[in-house]
Amino acid sequence: MSGIRVLVGRARHQAGALSAELRKRGADVIEIPFIEIRKPRSFHPLDAALKSLSSYDWLIFTSVNGVEAMWERMNELRLSKSSLRQMRIAAIGPATQRAVEQRGAKVQVVPKEYVAESVVRSLKNRVKGKRVLLVRAKVARDVIPRELHKAGAHVDVVEAYETAVPRSSRARLRAALKNPKTCPHVVTFTSSSTVKNFLELLRPTRSTKKRYTALAEIQLASIGPVTSSTLREQGLPVDIAAKEFTIPGLIAAIERAFATPQ
């Protein structure tokens, strides 16, 4: 990957792992966050759920951000992790599992594929009559609560954080794309939010078509099927798709795309 410029758009505090691994492989990394993680406008729903954790049978995390936000709030409320002992925990993906287990809790379910639909498949026969707490972002897909409700679960959804467009990235992103010396060969997308926010940062005063023309020579790399679907819905191609829906899987896909034929 020597000489390949890769634009990493993860939130500032999460870009490090992806950037470091790309640099190890010789890529030139440009970090411009497309997403910013913020506290929710009100902690009341999350606090109420955390104070009654003993009433839940299952706890579901869909991101590392959700894990971090919940534990931070538990610390604020001086709640012990022992309140999680009677619960079973499901986590989307190994990174989310790791974040939970680093905090001393055990994850019982990690779906085979790291998407909401796979969480539903893993849990739908285990939640009838059970109370389920889903900790997630303010704006998220409703697949999990809808389908688990159909399976007979009582599902409470609480917002632990919200995502926003980092306005300070607008000028930096446009400048990077405009300059041939800094224009990336690849832009990475690690969630649907990064896709939508990327386009918001590029929102022109002229036509939508003009916006996409600037991307014609750039390959767009997606971490998984939901992110890929969002790219296509926005009229953008998926040039590179991870086979395993993780950061290592995304890196491997980019490596394959730029591998020199033997």
Describe this structure in words.
The protein is of the alpha/beta class. It folds into two domains: 124 residues, Rossmann fold, CATH 3.40.50; 126 residues, Rossmann fold. The strands form two sheets. A five-stranded parallel β-sheet has the order 2-1-8-9-10, sandwiched between helices. A five-stranded mixed β-sheet has the order 3-7-6-4-5. Helix 3 runs parallel beside helix 4, helix 5 packs parallel to helix 6 and helix 8 runs parallel beside helix 10. The longest helix is centred in the first third of the chain and has 13 residues. The radius of gyration is 20 Å and the shape is elongated. The protein starts with a strand and ends in a 5-residue tail after the last helix.
Task: Describe what is shown at a glance.
The protein is 39% helix and 18% strand. The protein has 262 residues and is of the alpha/beta class. The strands form 2 sheets. Strands 2-1-8-9-10 form a 5-stranded parallel sheet, sandwiched between helices. It has a 5-stranded mixed sheet with strand order 3-7-6-4-5.
